[in-house]
User: Fold this.
Amino acid sequence: MAYHVHCPALEEYGASTWGYTEKEALKNIREVQVIHFHQKIDLQIRF
Assistant:
């Protein structure tokens, strides 16, 4: 069995992931969120 999760606030960016357990799926989506926000911060610093 696998769990699929997504972040509604980042849905337009395709922020979704999965895991074999609910705990793993939630850990993975948190990583996706952190990566997304770090990319946004990096882009703002460059301009």
User: Anything to note?
Assistant: Residues 26 and 46 are 31 Å apart (CA to CA). Helices lie at 22-46.
